Amino acid sequence: MKDYVLRRLAQLPLVLLFLSIIVFFVLRLIPGDPSAIRLGMETTEEGRQQVRQEMGLDRPIIVQYGIWLGDVFTGNFGESWVSRQPVSSLILQKLPATLTLTISSLLVGVIIAIPLGIIAGAKPNSWLDNIITTVSLFGVAIPTFWLGIMLILVVGVSLQILPVSGYTSLIDDPGDGLKRLILPSIALGTSLAAPLSRFMRSGMLDVMSADYIRVARAKGLTERSVVLGHAVRNALLSVVTVVGLQFGNLLGGTVIIEQVFEWPGIGLLILSAINNRDYGIVQGVVLFTALAFILVNLLVDILYVYIDPRIQY
Amino acid sequence: MAKQEDSLAEMSRAESGRATEITIKAGFVAQSREIWRRFRRSRTAVVGLAIVLVIVFAAIFADIIAPHDPYQTAPRAILLSPSLEHPMGTDAIGRDLFSRVIHGSRVSLQVGVISISIAAIVGVPLGVVAAYYGGLSDSLIMRFLDALLAFPAILLAIFVMAVLGPSIRNAMIAIGVIFIPAFARITRANALSLKEKEFVESARAIGAKDSYIMMRTILPNCVSPIIVQASLGVAYAVLVEASLSFLGLGSQPPEPSWGSILGAGRGLMASAPWVATFPGLAIFVCVLGFNLVGDGLREALDPHLKNT
């Protein structure tokens, strides 16, 4: 199992290389060249040349890539083309809001999905299982942003019991922060809960047919302790990796949900950057998010090897 | 005399060739029947198929079904609530929402089907080549796909759209790109086990070219998982297109797309909640339909599958 972790680590540089190539060259697909956007109205040939030089666009593309990659290695994710602020400091500013939302959505998703998956998987094809399976089918198909808007409509506009937009830091004002967190977390958490409960259910189905479950039943344990004491813990293992993979979807989902709830995180940062045609920020944020996703998945995989000693890759 | 024998031999060869073809055709028909029989057994799959057919029907005959012109504005009919005349109400410039939602199915299906085709056309060959040749080409291809997978799907689509500029065509490309890894991986996984099968080995033994082995022996046997992936992929592509259009990065006004209608309705929640409600329902039903068909196909095409 150490081999597997080592192999994953050995693959990492090549993946990161391709990743950086994609992030770098997608930006070069802009019609014309990036200096045209940075310049805006200022179009004298002299000014243009100067900006091209500042941005390094006058050098061969491979050299440009090399310089850019070197910067990334030293933690420099580029700068805003408009305000010249470093992207890393912009990200650090917005990260708390996004992380708060992502983690609370993760919690909401897990809290909904795991019990439902256990109930459905413990008694397959019962009426409860049918209901849960149907609901999770619906949950997969619901667009998160629509669910968010419907929540705003019902809870915010009609009932007026919760604020529907904006973010307050949980540290500054826990009460208000929590209130504002509820609706976006439910909207985003549901998109996680639906697939997760299906994985939990099939994990339970696999486990329930194992020999040690038959042994547990044969020695006269109640069904309750068979399920909770023996089955759940093992079924949970298979769900761990899924949660890791879904983390990326959550990060993507926050971009849209932040827009719906005017949540000032990384999603809104990238969307407003797109509106301003500030591709420096767009590129930096995309790179940062992809790196974060890769690291989270690597950590989950490593963690998985340690919590389930049976795994031999 | 010899000539006659030759032509006789040729005739019988042609005959046997036709016979093989007929047997293959009959086999195919029988197989399709068997798949259809298994597909039909699942009630949810049939419901899904019905939904998909209704949406396809709406997209094809949108001009006939829609009671109004989806582009026709009416200053006197702004934000009317649902009524017999306007079953889903009207939007902020008086356009009939029902007609716009019906026409929106064209955008969604078009983007869904074309983007998934792009993904399959690029992804499937990558998967077969990676599995067949193995070694360096396998690891290069797989690491490249890992890199693509490292982006949250929607974020990569947003990135590509931001750079290419918002339009339906670019949305198809962006969504196509994010689905390449899914097709490549599923094809590779299947091709890896097929590669060791006797019929592939015998093709190699009689000196078949690599391209022939990949195209004629391995690929045809990878078709079922690819079809399942395509159906589930269309569902997700519809969702991604709606998200992009909702953010203003997909289809552009005045084109009726479910995502952009929803985006426009977002600011009208207090006064005209129907504008955001109905296109969302349409997305939900469409995605559900393709998901159910995909699940049904998976069970119908692979009877050994475990209960998941």
**Helix/strand structural class of chain B:** mainly alpha
In whole angstroms, the N-to-C terminal distance of chain A is 6 Å
Shape of chain B: elongated
CATH architecture of the largest domain in chain A: Orthogonal Bundle
Low-confidence stretches of chain B: none
β-strand amount of chain B:
under 5%
Tell the overall outline of chain A. globular
Give the biggest sheet of chain B: none
Find the structural class of chain A using helix and strand composition.
mainly alpha
Count of β-strands of chain A: 0
Give the SSE string of chain A: HHHHHHHHHHHH
CATH class category of the largest domain in chain A: Mainly Alpha
The count of helical stretches of chain B stands at 12
Helix content, binned percent of chain A: over 70%
Average pLDDT of chain A: 85
Q: Using only CA atoms, what is the Rg of chain A?
A: 24 Å
- The structural domain count of chain A equals 2
Number of domains of chain B: 2
